[in-house]
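Customer ticket, subject: "Can you confirm the structure for AraC family transcriptional regulator?"

Message body: Hello, I'm evaluating your service for our small team and ran a test protein. I'd like someone to confirm that this is what the system normally returns, since I don't have a reference to compare against.
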Amino acid sequence: MFSWSTDHIAPRERFEHWREVRAKGVFGVTAELDPDQDGEFKGSMTIRPLGAAALVELHATPYRVSRTRADIARAPSDSLCLYQQLDGGGWFEAARGGEFVTPRGTLATSHSDLPYSTAPMTAAGFHLRVLKIPNGAALTRRAHELVAMPLDDRVPVTALIQSCFSDLAAKADNLDSAQAESLVQALAQLTLIARGVAEARSESSRAALRVGRLSAARYIIGRDADRASLSPAFVAGQLGISVRHLHALFEPTGQSFSQSVTAARLAEACRRLRQHPSQPVADIAFACGFDSLATFHRVFRAAFYMPPGDYRRSLQGKGPDG
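Agent reply: Thanks for trying us out. I re-ran your input and got the following:
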């Protein structure tokens, strides 16, 4: 993972460096800032390679960005881009797609080699996540038609992309190359379905839906494991599939839905036992979604061959991160 920020650069030199080295050199875009705001600029970014793709998170004070025809000629990248607005809001203008805004949480897509302009709509500036997927056999020639446009929340696959993208971002550092490639290509195909340039019933689309639904299910489990009421019916409802279909998604993984929920709850319990040595074990059990202290003790002992209290004592002197 590559991380960088303007913090180590003199205030008056920050935007020039960002414009020439980061914006133009890394992203192939033109960046502009009002002269009276030059000394106030701050920015940071992280770039995580995921095979040939890249997951970028960018946070910066307001400025204007454009991908011009000159930028495209100078630095073509032939990639499908998936954007997720993490905070604030953005304004976009696409060459053939008109103008649109991206409130917090919005997903948008585009092909990298089509012109656009964008700027933040609030003082929060830019805070977004971008997945850049090189075009290739896994995509379609029609990806080149994708002018910048938000995904329609009324299209069912959009919610799936949202959860799948969040799952990828949360687990990016822990995925092996095969897992990363599978998830990235699934997101690419799901995006093409959402934009109407891929047939949802094709073999590649059905495979992407399976990968995406499993990823989304795992994301929901991780997000809601603290709820004792978390059930297969709830997760299946979130995904728009049957409970039977949900269980079938987990069969090839060797870990059932129930086992996945228990694993997520135990992982959080272990974290709390490490980082909160004075928190009562009962409080930890209920905070992690276990319906009773007896259940927590039974499950914990089965997994770690010791009760939670002994586990906590075994960590004494090792620090909060174990």
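A couple of notes from the result: The domain at 2-157 is CATH 2.60.120.10 (Jelly Rolls). Residues 58 and 221 are 27 Å apart (CA to CA). Feel free to reply with more questions.
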